[in-house]
Amino acid sequence: MRPRSFVLRSGRMSAAQKRSYRALYSRWCIPFGNGALDFEKIFGNRNPVTAEIGFGMGESTALAASENPGVNYVGVEVYKAGIGKLLWEIDRRGLANIRIIEHDAAEVVEHMIGAASLDAFHIFFPDPWPKKRHHKRRLLALPFTGLLAAGLKSGGYISFATDWEDYAVWALGELSRTAGLVNPYGEGFAPRPAWRPETKFERKGIAKGRQIRELYFIRS
Predict the structure, then answer these.
(1) What domains lie within the chain, and their CATH numbers?
(2) 3-class secondary structure for the chain?
(3) Mean pLDDT throughout 39-66?
(4) Whole-prediction pTM value?
C-alpha cells in the first residue's frame, strides 16, 4: 500500500466555512467511490476537465474557474477548512464549473479517473516531505505518475509547481521516467504559466526567499 502523501491536521474551521460545508457539500461534492467518473454527466457539458490535486484553501481554484468558464474543474482535497472555503467561494462567485472530492488523491486517481478522461492535472505546492525518510510520501513519484499519465487524453498535461528545490529535482526525475509523458522543455524546468494564479503557499515561499520551480509534461 502506498504511504499517504498527507497528514490530517485538526485545523479550525471558521463559522462561514462550517456553514458552507454543511449547506453546500451535497450540491458540489462528489462522494468517493470505485468507478470512473462520467464528467459529461456530472457537469452537463463536454468542456475540458482539469483535476487540481490539493487545492488548499481554494482561492486560486475559484479564481481559475471564474476566469475560465469554459473549463470544468475537479478539486481533490482532504482538509475540511479548505473545502468549506472553496464551497463558500463557489457560492459567492456563482460558479457552476467546480466539483470537489474529499478523499486521498492517490486513491481518487486510481479508482475514479478513467483512462484518457482528463485534459489536465494541476498540482501546486504539495507537501514536499523534505526529510529523506519521508520521501516515500511524496505525491509525484512512480508508479503514481503512471496513473496520472494514463488518466490524461492525448495532448493533456501535468502542471506542477513547488518552492522546494529538492522536490522539484525529484519530481522532474520521476515524471521524466514515466512512460507516455514528454517534457517540451527538454530535460529542464518550465517557465511559469501565465494562466496559473498565485497561491497562498507560493507567496509564503517567496517571502522566505525560495525560488519557485515549475514542471510541465504532456501526454504523448
Answers:
(1) 15-30+37-219 (3.40.50.150)
(2) CCCCCCCCCCCCCCHHHHHHHHHHHHHHECCCCCCCCCHHHHHCCCCCEEEEECCCCCHHHHHHHHHCCCCEEEEEECCHHHHHHHHHHHHHHCCCCEEEEECCHHHHHHHHCCCCCEEEEEEECCCCCCCHHHHHHCCCCCCHHHHHHHHEEEEEEEEEEECCHHHHHHHHHHHHCCCCEECCCCCCCECCCCCCCCCHHHHHHHHCCCCCEEEEEEEC
(3) 96
(4) 0.92
